[in-house]
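Ticket #4471: structure export looks truncated?
Reporter: QA, pipeline team
Priority: medium

Steps to reproduce: submit the single chain below to the structure queue and open the exported record.
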Amino acid sequence: MTEPFDRITRRFLDEGWFAGAVLRVEMDGRPLVHAAWGNAIATDTRQEPMTPGTLFDAASLTKLFTTTGILKLVSVGALGLDTRISDFLELPPPLAAAVRGIDVMDLLTHSSGIPWWYPFYTRRREPFLGILREVVPAHPRRGEVVYSDLNFMILGIMIERALDKALPAAIEELVLLPLGLLHSSYSRPRGPVAATESGNRIEQRMVADLGLSFDGWRSTTRPIIGEPDDGNCFYYFHGSAGHAGIFTSAEDLCRLAKLYLDGGRVRGEPWLDPGLAERAIREQVPGRSLGFQVGPGWPAGACGHTGFTGTCLALFPDRGVAAALLTNRLHVPEPRDIAPYRARMLEPLAVSSHPLE
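Actual output as written to the record:
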């Protein structure tokens, strides 16, 4: 079963697209493929092979953990998809006016019109909502889907307020423990971890392009290992945010996917509202469901999410298939967009004649 994936991955490894990769494929909760290639860490002085259990900085796959926490809160009536930001958080008047009418559904589907990114760490001594008060009005909302880290930063804060706990403890209580995600956590990964980029080289350019400055960058002479790569998560939110910061394994990601493939059930028992679980993996607005990505860029009938560090979780609801495809694509001299690799690895899983059957 591993052979076609092995052939594809070794070709991309040889061409330097990433230092290593892990793939786990499950069908109806049964593991069919769980393989690792290359190195988790590959420097002049340190070589650590990739293993099936290597942990990864999930990057934006964290949004799926946040999504699951929010949908659990909706399922138990702690908030609703129509709960507005201004109903749940105490906002300064200019910000309240700027986000008027934006609700949880808008945030989950990236339909809020809130800007996609801002380096909050360039103003790290200022409160988040205070900075947001300036950032949101400065970017007029558009009537279209705009993928935004800020949407999930806000959702993370809503989770904290709902449980009156810091986000790591809240997500552990809401999601990790009930689902048995024993290898997942914010920061301090519980096992061997794959390296990401050497310093925040990409974000340094992004900040400069905005005409802003920051003097706290991590060293560009050594890879980041065991700390969130995302600048806002690491420098501003101290390692845990709604949009980034989770470290996880391929096994845990497939277990998270199984929740949605099983209609919101955990070990056969209802856990999420089944209607919410179904909506989460079916298109609600162009290209988006509740937290998940759908449509272009995914095989027919699939949904999922990707992460900046080279991570991906894909679900094929009509086939009961989940696939966690994890790479350390930033841990190379010249990082590239690994969309071609991801497409080659996922496309066979959508074909019913594939040998996984």
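Status: closed, not a bug. The export was complete when the record was re-opened. Leaving a note from the reviewer for reference: The radius of gyration is 20 Å.
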